[in-house]
């Protein structure tokens, strides 16, 4: 099932601490619509980065992933659920990983993101709807709202003992807390951790199209779109075909 490639590393800026073939994108998707969305997201990454980037997916429909031809390696999800990502993030095959939710589209070459991991352990963007009542809920303790939730849909991280231990603790916390949402436990665990955390600029996690309407090129150039519409469009297609 796994296909290995040897990416051309010439377009990566070389680092003293990592090689380009240690970097890769990871998707974790369950159910037909989300797996199909992940395939489209991976294809968008290929459009801008070609075979220079490795792409791995964990899915409960591995045959569908194989048929797409876009992934370098594919893993079977055992006991799938809506937040299966918390179970598989620690299992990344890469030394430097960019996890992307299925409802994303890459709209630029984003290989520069991996350079952040020369300095930081993990990087995410602020959650956009962080003032809503669901986002304001607490898990075990209260602390400053100036440290809001970070969005768990796009996560850049290093495969070090410290980071993997953190991700394993998030997995455990998510299942034990039984809160449904994964960012509630993530926020508190990040607050308590000693990880070097970087907050990505908003262009690396654009949640709403309205930002594209108001930003100028001098303000920010879009890098990754992360929008619910990519799931809704697929669901509408499925419904139309079933009529």
From TrEMBL:
Report the Pfam families cross-referenced here: Nucleotid_trans
SUPFAM superfamilies hit by this protein:
Nucleotide-diphospho-sugar transferases
InterPro entries, A to Z: Nucl-diP-sugar_transferase, Nucleotide-diphossugar_trans
Task: Using the record's annotation, list all stretches that form the Nucleotide-diphospho-sugar transferase domain.
Answer: 98-227
- Residue ranges annotated as transmembrane are none
This protein is called Nucleotide-diphospho-sugar transferase domain-containing protein
Organism per entry: Aerosakkonema funiforme FACHB-1375
């Amino acid at each position: 099932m796994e296909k290995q490639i040897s990416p051309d590393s010439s377009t990566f800026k070389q680092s003293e601490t990592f090689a380009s073939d240690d970097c890769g994108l990871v998707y974790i998707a369950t159910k037909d619509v989300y797996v199909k969305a992940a395939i489209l997201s991976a294809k968008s990454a290929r459009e801008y980065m070609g075979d220079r980037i490795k792409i791995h997916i964990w899915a409960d429909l591995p045959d569908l992933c194989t048929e797409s031809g876009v992934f370098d390696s594919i893993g079977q999800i055992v006991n799938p659920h809506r937040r299966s990502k918390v179970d598989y993030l620690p299992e990344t095959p890469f030394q430097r990983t960019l996890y992307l939710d299925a409802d994303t589209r890459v709209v630029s070459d984003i290989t520069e993101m991996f350079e952040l991991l020369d300095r930081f352990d993990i990087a995410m963007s602020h959650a956009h709807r962080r003032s809503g009542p669901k986002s304001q809920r607490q898990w075990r303790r209260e602390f400053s709202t100036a440290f809001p939730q970070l969005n768990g849909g796009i996560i850049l991280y290093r495969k070090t003992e410290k980071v993997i231990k953190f991700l394993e603790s998030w997995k455990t916390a998510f299942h034990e807390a039984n809160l449904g949402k994964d960012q509630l436990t993530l926020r508190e665990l990040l607050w308590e951790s000693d990880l070097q955390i970087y907050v990505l600029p908003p262009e690396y996690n654009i949640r709403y199209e309205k930002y594209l309407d108001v930003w100028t090129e001098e303000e920010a150039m879009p890098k990754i779109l992360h929008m619910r519409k990519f799931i809704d469009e697929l669901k509408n297609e499925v419904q139309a075909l079933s009529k």
